[in-house]
Amino acid sequence: MKKYLQIFKLSFQQEFAYRLNFVMWRVRNILQIILLFFLWSSVFKDPQTEVFGYNQEKILTYVFGILILRAIVFSARAVDVAGEISNGDITNFLLKPVNYFKYWATRDIASKILNLGFSVFEITILFLILKPNLFLQTNLLTLFAVLISLTMAVILFFCLLFITNMSAFWMPENGWAAQFLFIAIITDFLSGGVFPLDILPLAFQKVLYSTPFPYLLFFPLQVYLGKIAGLEIIRGLATAFTWVFILFMTVKFIWAKGLRRYSAEGR
Amino acid sequence: MDRAIVVDRLVKNFEVTEKEKGLRGSIKSIFSPKRKIVHALKGISFTIQPGELVGFIGPNGAGKTTTLKTLSGLLYPSSGFVQVLEYDPWEKKPEFLKQISLVMGQKNQLWWDLPAIETFELNKEIYEIPRRDYEKNLEELVTLLDVGKLLKTQVRRLSLGQRMRMELVAALLHRPKVLFLDEPTIGLDLIGQQKIREFIYEYNRKNNATIILTSHNMDDLTNLARRVIVISAGQILFDGALEELTSRFAKEKIIKVSLSEEVDIKTIEEIGKVKHVLFPEVTLSVPRSAVAVAAAEILQNFPVNDLTIEEVPVEEIIKKVFRGELNK
């Protein structure tokens, strides 16, 4: 266990070694949030308006919620795995008594904590400037469900990230493009990062709910907003858990196959 | 345990995708990739005793690095048997990994943006080295390699030679019993090379560590390796003492003659290939089988002060190995 604690400490230091990168990433997040804030505030000018079951208060909570959830779920260092595979740096880990998944999970947690810290700070500032009406969930049981769905969201994203990244075992040069397409565009869109998924056609929503994507951002946030309750929560958590299981097994399977394929390139 | 490393009929094939040149070739390779099987190792066998220091030599692409990678568990053998310290390397058991180390001259494990000491501390935890051992090992390695003042310098700011020495510290903190060194002196200046060599020698002697070394540096081999394995095109051509390399592969012997008076060089050229003339010394190279006859002929027909018959220097043979000029 101590080895992962040490990795955790180094990850923190490493993040600070690239301060500018980190700051730009945060700036991007803030700009995005301001954009979404003004977009939705103008749609819901009248606090009494309700569209797709959202009033001004709830849509603004959604926008702010997404900011925090992104920091928790999407900030991950494991995007570097593809690079490590194609340039051969993964060799360093295969030679040591260290678990590669735990290594990246540790680095991800460090990254998440750092990002979360900053987004709480940013939100406080934005909150003070924009003074929005936010919805506070007080039901403890609901909050507990949020916590569970969030944990699963983190694991789901970790698995998805690893699966995409491990394609580098077979196509060392295609890693980056696949990731960009997959993570930056598709995942963000399908998980509700751009707009709430329940404004989409119902048939489309149904299909979407059987994929792992909504469980990354949308589902935990819906639970928090109280838009999903009771049996629906249980059903959602069950689907998410099934995906956690399926993706976890997929990761293990591809890893075993990929390692045999690995040729430790770059000499 | 009487054998540290056992390799038996090891075969490793790679599948590679070939790309034609230019943009057109790149696009073509996306839709119909041309695959080719590369036979990197064609059934090699050897064993190494604990404490041996063995040099692996051969031309580029002969399969040296592939062998080291297979022995350290990075590559999955296509067929054949591999055993290191009685473990199957591929299983990557922590107990096995704690006893080996692979150092590649062109790869680094140090965290690029942090001082080297941070990587050392991390390795201490990863290999679960007790604090007291860690401090003792670190102190010893740092002194031997003379890098004490650089521990807190960001790795990216170190010179190549300094970094290579730090790499060695990182790779040896856990005192591996088996050490694979792939081109450890590549790109270093003469003093840097010398330091690394002395260090390897000491490490081998002090810890009775088993070491396999690949190198293109003649001095690495002649100074360190008592036994060499010559590998070429995935096959072992020779496995034995460094000195035997000459008798096995040199088709010629060297005759050195010291003459008492000047003679016409052309007449000597009829006896053997004249390699060097600096009167009164003449150096000839003659086929092994004809050496006795040639010597007798010289003694009979020329005014000779002194005559010696020598083997071709081992360096010449090793040069030939690197150029891939040796055959079975």
Automatic annotation (TrEMBL), chain B:
The keyword Phosphoprotein does not apply. InterPro entries: AAA+_ATPase (IPR003593), ABC_transporter-like_ATP-bd (IPR003439), ABC_transporter-like_CS (IPR017871), ABC_transporter_ATP-binding (IPR050763), P-loop_NTPase (IPR027417). It comes from Candidatus Woesebacteria bacterium CG_4_9_14_3_um_filter_39_10. This is ABC transporter. The keyword Heme does not apply. PROSITE patterns: ABC_TRANSPORTER_1, ABC_TRANSPORTER_2. Residues 25-258 form the ABC transporter domain. GO terms for molecular function: ATP binding; ATP hydrolysis activity.
